[in-house]
Amino acid sequence: MTETGLHGRLHVLGAAGSPYTRKVIAALRYRHIPYALHWGSHRNPLPGFPEPKVKLLPTVYVPNPDGGHVAKVDSTPILAELEHVVADRALQPSDPVMAFLDHLIEDYADEWLTKAMFHYRWSGSEDIEHAGPQLVFWHDPTTPDEAAEAASAFISRRQIDRLYVVGSNPTTSSTIEQSYQRLLPILDHMIAARGYVMGARPGTSDFALYGQLTQLGVVDPTPAALCAAHTPRLRAWIDRMEDLSGLEPQGEDWLDRTAARSHLGPLLGEIGRVYVPFLIANAGAAQAGLAEVETEIDGRAWTQPTFAYQAKCLVWLKQHAAALSDDDQAVCCSILAGTGCECLFER
Ligand SMILES: N[C@@H](CCC(=O)N[C@@H](CS)C(=O)NCC(=O)O)C(=O)O
């Protein structure tokens, strides 16, 4: 076992265009956790490593004491488990109230903001034409031109056909776009005030937002132009987040619960405006065995296929809320009052 508490270096299979890959590797770098990154995908599995249960990117291969590896997917539990193994440079705030808010914001970034990422990338012709070749060359920059063109057309078609699955369709598109456009100045103001969402040091939520913004704010022409034009500070922050290995975080750098309402309020209001209503409608549809979620979000109709994983996200958030002490639950409720997120504490 090394001084990190791990039995050697992690191996990560990931792609530069995958927001969750970018979230995980930036978090590992910040945490000084040694890893070897393998750019690629499960089309070319890493020789000698086990297959994960679900072939998602990133896949993190965690060393065993016997010299083998366990293949793990899903950035949220991966980062949470590493939190217990490696104590230094934590991603979760030490105050349980702030840790809950960090989890809520992480979940919003992973599960809602990704709708904007997928929507912008695969719905407008300029963005589609840009993304197709990028996906091919992120996977293998030596792909010959002709093969790259064919692969780009194939991947683009497959991704466009998946748009509906993540909830992007003509009914939902303006809700998704307006939500992204409201988020940009909210984050810009938070960064101006304290440096990060979680205070003067980053939490898991900062890395989750960063992961989606590596694409929305930088790569895809339409949303990246909006970020550069309206929120240059946020645009610069995205680049800095990539490597925070030199930051020396202190305990007092965490956002204090007494400042949570004023610092996080607008972001929590955005989450309560769009994501929490979605989570509730989606979980209701899942429970009723319905294939489609039909609801209203932000005053407009919302429809998409029911998403089983996101029904679990609501369960996990509610379990986290219920596990807080009564006093901490009361503090959370007062921070969340009027944001639309307070219903996570309803029994
Ligand atoms: N909840 C997962 C989501 C991971 C995920 O959806 N990864 C995408 C790439 S960004 C993926 O592998 N999609 C399947 C595919 O592209 O075939 C996480 O947080 O890691």
From TrEMBL:
Signal peptide extent: none
Annotated SUPFAM superfamilies: GST C-terminal domain-like, Thioredoxin-like
Annotated InterPro entries: Glutathione-S-Trfase_C_sf (IPR036282), Glutathione_S-Trfase_N (IPR004045), Thioredoxin-like_sf (IPR036249)
Recorded coiled-coil stretches: none
Ranges where the GST N-terminal domain occurs: 14-84
Xref: Pfam families: GST_C_2 (PF13410), GST_N_3 (PF13417)
Protein name, as recorded: GST N-terminal domain-containing protein
Lineage: Bacteria, Pseudomonadati, Pseudomonadota, Alphaproteobacteria, Caulobacterales
